[in-house]
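Training component of the fellowship. As part of building independent skills, the fellow (R.M.) carried out the full modelling exercise for a liganded target. The chosen ligand was iron/sulfur cluster. The inputs are recorded below so that the supervisory panel can assess the work.
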Amino acid sequence: MPYKFTFDLSKVPRFFFTEIARVSYQKGMHKTLLKTLQDVIRKFKIQEATGLNLSDAVVLIQDLIDLQAVNLLERKKFLQTKKRALFLPHCSRKYMDGRCKAAFDPSIPSYTCAHCSPDCLVNKANCLAKKKGYDVYVLPGSSCVSKILKTARYEGVVGVACGEEIKISGEIIGGTDVAGQAIPLVKNGCANTIFNMETLFKTL
Ligand code: SF4
Ligand code: SF4
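Fellow's submitted model of the complex:
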């Protein structure tokens, strides 16, 4: 399920994400989390940058902080894993129509990138992860995660998606021994979505 609103944080300064990480470290210690969220939103002019209203911006930032807090909790366990997979969202492909040459195998279910466009985010992430020994899946939705985890016994997975889809996948992975790391999209909308390659590089 996508968010009910669209956002684009791709032009927000990198420092914003450092701030999200800082707040995530302190999560649980804050009695006034809502005020902290509103401070972050004001400081980085998130409403002006994205056109979101305050309550949608709070939902978005709260999700980013929650994801980062779970990433931090899981990081040590994840670093000890050997057999890993990367789940990429199909919405970050350069093309969503026939110009994308990826083949879809419903039995997995996953797209396999055919590397038709060097500037395609999914292509770049795919190549990076494969070099690091990951199996890579390009998924049409979080419902594919449980099927893949049942057939291939991964110890660690990195998932890229919008916050809502990551929450659903997190519930699936939370019921297993798999250590997860999540990378939220910085621009959603179910087509031409964007994630940060630097964040992916550091996470892998
Ligand atoms: S590079 Fe891969 S994922 Fe991107 S459009 Fe081409 S085949 Fe599709
Ligand atoms: S933005 Fe991408 S990951 Fe999120 S629901 Fe839409 S297609 Fe799925």
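The panel noted the following from the submitted structure. The pocket of iron/sulfur cluster (ligand 2) is lined by residues 2, 89, 91, 141, 161-162, 165, 188, 190, 193 (CB under 6 Å). The chain has eight helices and six strands.
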